[in-house]
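REVIEWER CHECKLIST
Item 1: Sequence provided? yes
Item 2: Single chain? yes
Item 3: Sequence as submitted:
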Amino acid sequence: MDYGRFRYQQDKKQQEARKKQSAIQVKEIKVRPKTDTHDLEIKLGHIKKFIGKKNKVKVTLMFRGREITMTDRGKAVLEEIAKHAEEFATIEQPPKMEGRTMTMVLGPK
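Item 4: Structure as written out by the authors:
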């Protein structure tokens, strides 16, 4: 077998492997500590749609100004989102504070 034929077959195998693999994207949902319940329900609908498409979802809670003193309220909002999303998603990273933002990552079950 000549080298050109061998390279051609290897390229074809790699092309087939790339065609079959799926890239997982990380989608982001942003909320605030004072986000109302109806708005959270809308955001949960978006999370469900993203998870249904086999994407991961990063929920970012942003604190502005004096809201930084309400970190317990922010954690409660993220835990509420996680509680409602547990039927179709798993928590890959629990709520974690980074500067003025608190993040949590959800993945498909």
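Item 5: Key structural point noted by reviewer: The mean pLDDT is 92.
Item 6: Recommendation: ____
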